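From the pipeline queue, job 12 of 40. The input is one protein chain; the requested action is below.

Action: predict structure.
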Amino acid sequence: MADEAVPVPAAAGPGRIVLAATPIGNTGDASARLIGLLGTADIVAAEDTRRLHRLVQSLGVTVAGRVISYHEHNE
């Protein structure tokens, strides 16, 4: 199955949430959409922010928005 880039609107407006899957093990499996979203999101909520930082570093992405920790113990 080919990975096709899905365009991400520059100004999506308030109240939009996007759930994105992250690759398990191989960062080469990250979709173009995930890479685009990580670079343009206002807020990125991650279960483990340490893993998120390693992921974006290996993808060569700079997260412009705020990174917050979100898991069952701090919902």
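Job complete. The two ends are 35 Å apart (CA to CA).
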